[in-house]
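Title: Comparing notes on inverse folding

I've been comparing how different people in this forum approach sequence design from structure. To keep things fair, I'm posting one structure and asking everyone to reply with a full sequence. Here's the target:
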């Protein structure tokens, strides 16, 4: 095999295609969950929206329970503070139990209420898929191909200056 008879362009193109294929397989394998979600989103959006609605409903129930518990704890803490204040035991109480009771009493119930109202008002839709994996498949190989072509023509132009007239 003689070096001057090798078709460098065709050989390097084949090397680039094989390397790109291996790169694509690697990127898809690394981002399999995103790839699978993208195709599921494209084919079964209604099913994903139903799952999102179920997750939203579960979160609404959790927030409702948190709100009820927080309101009950705030009421109990307020009653306990009133009893301790009337009996004069509030001043003799250690710092930590006092702070704990004040925290339960002053817990921001409005924040929980507004979060619950916002959650109920917002529609439950499946999040759109990220296409970063698609960019990762195409960008590096195309950049390498463009850089290789640029270097090839730059080298041709550069070495053309050394040819004898």
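Reply #1:
Here's my take.
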């Amino acid at each position: 095999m003689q070096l001057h008879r090798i078709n460098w362009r065709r050989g390097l193109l084949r090397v680039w295609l094989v390397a790109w294929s291996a790169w694509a397989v690697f990127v898809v394998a690394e981002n399999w969950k995103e790839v699978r979600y993208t195709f599921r989103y494209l084919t079964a959006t209604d099913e994903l929206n139903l799952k999102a609605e179920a997750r939203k409903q579960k979160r609404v129930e959790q927030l409702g329970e948190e709100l009820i518990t927080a309101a009950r704890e705030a009421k109990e803490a307020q009653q306990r503070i009133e009893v301790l204040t009337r009996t004069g035991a509030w001043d003799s109480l250690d710092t930590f139990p006092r702070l704990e009771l004040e925290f339960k009493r002053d817990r921001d119930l409005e924040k929980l209420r507004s979060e619950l109202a916002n959650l109920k008002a917002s529609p439950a839709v499946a999040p759109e898929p990220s296409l970063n994996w698609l960019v990762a498949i195409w960008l590096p190989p195309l950049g390498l191909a463009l850089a290789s072509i640029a270097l090839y023509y730059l080298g041709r132009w550069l070495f053309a200056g050394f040819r004898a007239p």
